[in-house]
Design goal:
Structural class: mainly alpha
Shape: globular
Domain RagB/SusD: 328-636
Protein name: Starch-binding associating with outer membrane
Mean pLDDT: 91
Subcellular location: Cell outer membrane
Number of strands: 10
Domain SusD-like N-terminal: 106-233
Strand order of the largest sheet: 1-8
CATH architecture of the domain at 10-69 and 91-259 and 617-626: Alpha Horseshoe
Pfam families: SusD-like_3, SusD_RagB
């Protein structure tokens, strides 16, 4: 394990100090010693921003297992011919679903920083070095120093948390080891998983008092950590600790460290859910105190015509793609750079250059079927919705004209769906508001059968569904490409509401309070409350009134509300549900066909491979040789 840099060269820190705001790019030139790195306030702040740089890099969704292994998106385009992309980079994480993970050269290696992973021990070491030396400069105010210390503690906590989610029990790197540390002292062992979680929570608790509740000057400080963010992360950490993957998981009950100590709790502790619920409510209260709320759409483009239906879709999508809006509790500075992967070709300009619009973030059919009907219940349960004939076709009608092209033949499953379906996913026949056309009386639409979006050899969508949520409506592509960039949100207020509802249900079962927070999310999506929807429309009307039933509802609600946001993969892991999601083949339409009858045939893209061992990531075998005090992640021996 190369947690082992006995001293971290500051030059390495500077290499990682790239960020998306200019003030985070301030780094000292030609720094060779720690003494010069902490000679004054400017140099010290630059070192702190170096600690931030790895956090900024985590905003790249290709590095996030919560995105790449969530079964929400397929990339690259085919398993049979991955070279079609011409050697496109950044696809390593998507191979997790293909059964290509291994212990010799792990995918998304966050222990050593290979295969789209980042070496998280390095920024942890930087944080420790910073905390050891932040008292040296004499031109730093006490307020400033207190804030910097709190930021470094948060960063150290979050990097440890990311590692825990990936590997379970890890060594705790709490101090910067001196240069004369012996080899044996450097070779640290893993702590129990509960000790690891408790350490992260302790650091967050220490950080909160020293952080501002909100950023006052976004021009100079957007992206820095606040106490509200720290409280929201604490809620997420405690919820993860309480979840089945880490709380009495029988699959890990016999896992021991080299000293014979059990590394995972052998029995589930129900009180962890109550503790997590308290943390969720504290985070929500803190967010409310700083003005958090639901995003309201306001036009920032040349709108020709916009119906109330289209405005609702843009409000739902805007909570994610409109940077720094009140719905976003925690946003990272780097802008999302992959809109061209999620965009269909909807006009001749876009179709003229397949290299401008790749269009190959392909959404599996199963993900599209996750979204509710217009009645707010699953398509498998709605007694008014024709589930059996969902793969048949029908023409677009006047009632759906702002969602589906009028008179265009589309799958029956695309009709009578909830607003989040139309704001998050695009499909053959769906209206595409934007890309230079903001007239929803005569909008662009997707013709995946025999039009601009149909199969072309260079770049194509392999399922017939696009992640519309990831593309701002002001973006357009082709000969005149203009991408509307946005910063990546890590936590939104609706996610916190659902986290709170989940913890309440797990701690005490269904309650009016749990329904209240769940229904706040549903109301924003234009859906009836959970009790009303299930009572009136579900074939299982009493589902919401049982703990297990409400658990299923909340889990599905989170996957819908937070679709494509890099959350689902983490949720499915902590719930121990990802294995079920990946049990069947990834499917889509027969995208190479040029007629509707040929196109609308369900086709298998590939069969995912996911086993019990894949819930956690392997430590590279090399690291086990260099540090014999480590044990391999369960089932990777």
């Amino acid at each position: 394990m190369k947690l082992l840099f006995k001293i971290l060269p500051v030059a390495i820190a500077l290499q990682f100090a790239a960020s998306c705001k200019k003030y985070l790019d301030v780094t000292p030139d030609n720094v060779a010693t720690l003494e010069s790195a902490f000679t004054n306030a400017n140099e010290t702040q630059a070192y702190l921003f170096g600690c931030y740089s790895t956090l900024q890099a985590l905003a790249d969704v290709r590095r996030n297992p919560g995105f790449t292994s969530s079964a929400e998106v397929v990339f690259p385009i085919t398993l049979q011919d991955p070279t079609v992309l011409g050697g496109a980079g950044g696809d390593a994480g998507f191979n997790l679903m293909r059964g290509l993970q291994n212990a010799e050269n792990p995918i998304l290696n966050y222990w050593q920083g290979y295969n789209m992973g980042l070496n998280l021990w390095r920024p942890i070491r930087m944080c420790n070095t910073f905390l050891d030396n932040v008292d040296k400069p004499t031109d730093v105010s006490q307020f400033q120093r207190t804030r910097w210390i709190a930021e470094a503690k948060f960063l150290k906590a979050y990097y440890h948390y990311w590692l825990i989610r990936m590997y379970g029990p890890i060594p705790i790197s709490d101090v910067a080891l001196p240069v004369n540390t012996t080899s044996e002292e450097v070779r640290q062992k893993q702590q129990t998983v509960d000790s690891c979680f408790n350490y992260v929570v302790r650091l967050l608790d220490e950080a909160v008092p020293g952080l501002p509740a909100a950023i006052q000057n976004s021009a100079t400080e957007a992206g820095r950590i606040t106490s509200t963010i720290a409280l929201a992360v604490k809620a997420e950490v405690l919820t993860t600790q309480a979840s089945p993957l880490f709380n009495g998981n029988p699959d890990y009950a016999q896992v021991k460290g080299k000293d014979g100590q059990f590394l995972f709790p052998t029995t589930a502790d129900a009180t962890k859910w109550q503790k997590a619920a308290v943390a969720c409510k504290a985070a929500i209260d803190a967010a409310n105190a700083t003005g958090a709320g639901l995003y309201q759409f306001t036009s920032n483009g040349n709108i020709v015509h916009m119906s109330d239906s289209t405005k609702q879709l843009l409000a739902l999508q805007g909570g994610f793609v409109e940077s720094w809006n009140p719905e976003q509790v925690w946003t990272l500075n780097p802008t999302f750079g992959w809109s061209y992967m999620a965009t269909p070709r909807v006009n001749a300009d876009a179709a003229s250059d397949a290299f401008a619009v790749y269009s190959n973030f392909s959404v599996p059919l199963a993900e599209s079927e996750l979204f509710y009907t217009s009645n707010g219940v699953p398509i498998t349960e709605d007694k008014t919705w024709d589930y059996t004939n969902r793969y048949k076709t029908q023409p677009g009608d006047d009632a759906h004209r702002y969602y589906i092209k009028n008179n265009y033949t589309s799958a029956s499953g695309n009709f009578h769906r909830e607003p989040r379906y139309y704001s998050s996913i695009a499909f053959d026949g769906s209206v595409w508001f934007g890309s230079g056309n903001t007239d929803d009386n005569n909008p662009y639409y997707i013709n995946a059968v025999n039009g601009y979006a149909s199969y072309v050899p260079q770049r194509y969508n392999v399922t017939g569904y696009w992640a519309k949520k990831l593309v701002h409506y002001l973006s357009s592509a082709g000969k005149t490409t203009v991408w509307k960039s946005y910063s990546w949100p890590f936590i939104r207020i609706t996610g916190l509401w659902l986290l709170y509802a989940e913890c309440l249900n797990e701690a005490n079962g269904p309650s009016s309070v749990a329904y209240e927070w769940l229904d706040k999310v549903r109301a924003h999506a234009g859906l009836p409350g959970v009790a009303q929807a299930w009572t009136q429309y579900s074939r299982n009307p009493g589902k919401y009134a049982t703990k297990d039933g409400l658990r299923q509802i909340i889990h599905q609600e989170r996957r819908i509300e937070l679709a494509f946001e890099g959350q689902a993969g983490w949720d499915l892991r902590r719930w121990k549900e990802l294995q079920n999601v990946l049990s069947g083949p990834v499917q889509g339409w027969n995208y190479r066909q040029k007629t509707a009858p040929g196109f609308y045939q369900v086709s298998n893209v590939y069969q995912p491979v996911f086993n019990v061992r894949d819930y956690l990531f392997p430590i590279q075998n090399y690291d086990l040789l260099t540090n014999p005090n480590l044990v391999q992640t369960p089932y990777w021996q």
